[in-house]
Amino acid sequence: MKRTQRFGKLGAKMGKGKLGSSLSSVGSMRPGAIPLSIEFGVSGIKVLSISGTNPSSIVAAAFMPTPDDLLDNAAKRLLFQMDALPKFLKGEKINAARATTMIPSGQMMCKHLQLVPADGVPIEQVAGAQLSAQLGCSPGELLVRCRVVKGASVNGKVEVICFAASREFVGRLMGSLKNAKLEPVGIQTEFDAIAKAVELRDGTPGGVGSVKPTLVLDLGSGSTKVLIMHGQNMAFARNIELGARHFDETICHQLRCTTMEARQMREELMVLMPQKVGASTASASMPGMPNMPPISTSEEESAENEASSTEAFQRGPQIDLSEPLEIMVDEISMCLRYHSALFPSTRVERLIFVGGQSRNHLVCEHLARTLKLEAQMLDPLACLARSGKVPTSGVDLRTPQPGWAGVVGSALCPMDL
User: Fold this and answer.
1) What is the pTM assigned to this prediction?
2) Phi, psi of 195 (to 5 degrees)
3) Residue 287, number of CB atoms within 10 A of its CB
4) Which residue has the higher pLDDT, 8 or 314?
5) Which domains does the chain have, with CATH numbers?
6) Cα angle, residue 22 at apex, residues 17 and 28 outer, rounded to 5°
7) Which residues of 46-59 are buried (b: 16+ CB within 10 A; e: fewer)?
């Protein structure tokens, strides 16, 4: 299923600002404490404060959920979160001078390009010219960051992963941090942040190691991010506009219920697809097994009644998520095929799940089984040290928190502003 990548509503009208045309060339890493990491996610705002190195330790963590009536409206949700950030930080008594944040995937374009390098011209400028022509805008209206795929060369061209965002929207992100009396020191992509979180896990004692080609799936509320890593190098990246919210929409359509009811039912599901009807009926009609006495007439009637009641129950309204799951598997398989075309002799060997929706073991098991990959879930907060009781709000550190991979990685990424 082919989808056209577009910027979100806030980035549709891209005005001119004072930022440069490349995030990778507007500054260098500054010394100092680890900045406060903030994520404007679909499910809510995540704030993480960490300190120290080898390993870093958690200072504070807080989460503010998105109101239910804003979950389906990205523009209003982001505006609400940006306005609520100062009051949220003040209420949680989180004090910081500097902060870093990520560009939401819905407001960013992620695309693979094959480019011919030009002497003396930054690769971001070459990519920006091509992307602006596709979007029908001026190159100066885009902020572009590129990741060259090492080891991939097609007909003399260089394979490049390009991330582009509206300059106006990035300016709004920085403005929201300044309104909270924070100095912006980093604007990261979600893919870079997730890659950093995976690197953190592999660098800890007992890590799997960083040499295996790894497929990373970030299962979020609004989208699924696909990332393939070769060690610490990014080899593939793509954002699929299919997440838990689309599962809820499927349930709403099937059962004619509200979104909140659909979400609750999805979280309590025991199976993702309805089981075949009539299996119990077929077993009840089978003759007796060898060395077993034949079933009496009364027992036969009891078995038939039980089978008919089971069949009637199975024929009732049931949740069937086979269609969105099939679409998701097809999209991920296309990503793996593209990677195989770039690296014919390199096979992805493992699968790591991150994102808040990866706590749904049924979905993870289905994807791992269908993709035929050994899979694990990453809890990035478990890779960080804890000194005593950590002040938290809206997050339980006693349970795995795979949805915090991006905010953890963003805090550890180099500052680039």
Assistant:
1) 0.82
2) -60, -40
3) 8
4) 8
5) 17-247+323-412 (3.30.420.40)
6) 110
7) bbbbbeeeeebebb
